Amino acid sequence: MAGLSRRGLLSVSAALCALCAPALAADGYFLNGYGPRQKALGGAGVADSRDAMSLSINPAGLVDLPRELQLGVTALIVNRGYSTTGQPLVVAPGDVRSGRPVFPIPHDAYSAPIDGDSAWGTASYANGGINTAYDFGHYRAPAGGPYGGGFAGVDLEQNFTTAGYARKFGAISIGVAPTLAVQMLNVQGLKSFSAYSSSPDHLSDNGYDWSVGGGIRAGLQWRITEQLRFGLAGSTPMYMTAFRKYSGLLADGGRLDIPATVIAGLAYDVVPDVTVMADWRHIFYSGVPTLHNSSFPLRLNSFGSPNGVGYDWQDTNSASFGVEWRATPGLALRAGYHYSTNPIPSRAASFNVLTPVINMHNVSGGFSYAVTKNSTIDFSAIYAFKNNTRGIEALPQTAQNPYGAYNPNATVNLWLQGLELTIGWTYKFDPDDHSFIPRLDRL
Questions:
Q1: What is the pLDDT of residue 441?
Q2: Confidence at residue 75, expressed as pLDDT on a 0 to 100 scale
Q3: Could you tell me which SUPFAM superfamilies the record lists for this protein (predicted)?
Q4: pLDDT value at residue 79
Q5: Are 387 and 359 in contact (CB under 8 A)?
Q6: How far is it, in rounded angstroms, from Cα 400 to Cα 396?
Q7: Is 233 exposed, middle or buried (0-12, 13-18, 19+ CB in 10 A)?
Q8: I need a labelling partner for 365 at 20 to 30 A (CA). Which of 100, 192, 378, 394 fits?
Q9: Is 31 in contact with 137 (CB distance < 8 Å)?
Q10: Is the Cβ–Cβ distance between 58 and 231 less than 8 Å?
Q11: What per-residue confidence (pLDDT) applies to 102?
Q12: Could you tell me the sign of the dihedral formed by the alpha carbons of 300, 301, 306, 308, in that order?
């Protein structure tokens, strides 16, 4: 029981640490994978589960795993910002780069067979969410910063803690994983938009606020032949409590649910030691009013109002391709590619200066190396090519423009590029080892 408590404490600790770090995302603010194996494969693997972190993508894969423990951390090195051309009237002009370029995000997972046909597991992982930090430079009246409200930025972070159960029915495995979600949000530099808020005191610069909620992830895996497997998984929306401190910014009085997702894919063993994978994923940003509602025109008192103004994000579709070569019993080599559609349309560029999540093309690679019979070191690297969205500056409602307007004399260009480096450790328990934590003599 003491070991179980330690493992629970480990998951909670990793969850709290993950709430301290933003991320380089791949599909909007969702990462393209969780854990070094998924990341190295470009996010593919819904049909091919080989480590405990696979619970984060498809809980059905738990039945194919031994009892193992995984720990790891990702270092995110992110460059993002915006630039303007012409004569902008709302956004501060110039080539403006966000600060805070390097962050860590930990993860952990545990899997355990129950019998020959069922298994359970736990995992803690995170979407880094959104993070920007613009200083007082690139002055816009009255107080500097991108929007004239001084130092500006958004820090949105999301953590998921899940427990899953899976069972095998012949060639088909089915799994379910109830998930607890926690969000943290801090918004600064938007006080110049007070007239456009339904509650100006809850618009900006109120420090961090928390939101909790949850949903369910479920999935299946079908072994069509000995070489070919099909996987399907999805998550319900994560229904979250409102951010009360930002009820004058986010639609519906501070609501920011986490959108539903669906993933489908195939895995094929070209030869026994080489597997190729291809996945497709859809994220339903259209189901979250704060993210999907139109950002134009920005009317008086519209921030925070019922079905109020949003970020104008669109649903994303992405494709992941990965290949894994298990070169020796102790060495696996991996490579991947990930492509995602852009959630931010050009018409919403000026409103998304604080949220430039426009990452489309990623290449990745990595390896696993067994340092002992029980312990494996895992590594992955992802490079996100620079991507941008350019649009004409949008102007809010004024007495001169009661329906809002676009500024034909200025454009706003959002951009993002970056690097992810992930290192992990996997410990596989021996069949005769019934301890709750790894034994020092077998590390």
A1: 65
A2: 87
A3: Porins
A4: 85
A5: yes
A6: 10
A7: buried
A8: 100
A9: no
A10: yes
A11: 73
A12: positive
Is residue 215 within 8 Å of 42, Cβ to Cβ?
no
Beta bridge pairs of residue 420: 76, 382
User: Token digits for 423?
Assistant: 């290192």
SS (H, E, C) the chain: CHHHHHHHHHHHHHHHHHCCCCCCCCECCECCCCCHHHHHCCCCCCCCCCCHHHHHCCHHHHHHCCCEEEEEEEEEEEEEEEEEEECCCCCCCCEEECCCCEEEEEEEEEEEEEECCEEEEEEEEEEEEEECCECCCCCCCCCCCCCCCCCEEEEEEEEEEEEEEEEEECCEEEEEEEEEEEEEEEEECCHHHHHHECCHHHCCCCCCEEEEEEEEEEEEEEECCCCEEEEEEEECCEEECCCHHHCCCCHHHHCCCECCEEEEEEEEEEECCEEEEEEEEEECHHHCHHHHCCCCCCCCCCECCCCCCCCCCCCEEEEEEEEEEEEECCEEEEEEEEEECCCCCHHHCHHHCCCCCCCCEEEEEEEEEECCCCEEEEEEEEEEEEEEEEEEEEECCCCCCCCCEEEEEEEEEEEEEEEEEEEEEEEECCCCCCCCCCCHHHC
Asked if 412 contacts 424 with a C-beta cutoff of 8 angstroms, the reply is: no
The position carrying tokens 């979600």 is: 181
Spans of the chain, pLDDT less than 70: 1-25, 100, 128-129, 138-139, 439-443
Domain count for the chain, please give it: 1
Q: In Å, what is the CA distance from 139 to each residue of 32, 92, 149, 310?
A: 36, 6, 10, 25
Chain position carrying tokens 């996987």: 231
List the beta bridge partners of residue 168: 173
| Model pLDDT for residues 248-265, shown as the tens digit of each residue | 999 999 999 999 999 999
- pLDDT at site 99: 77
Q: Pick from 357, 257, 379, 331: which is nearest to 30 by CA?
A: 357
- Residue 40 to residue 336: CA distance in whole angstroms: 6
Instruction: State both tokens at 334.
Output: 């991996």
Average pLDDT, the chain: 89
The one-letter amino acid code at 322 reads G
Rounded CA gap, 73 and 125, in Å? Answer: 10
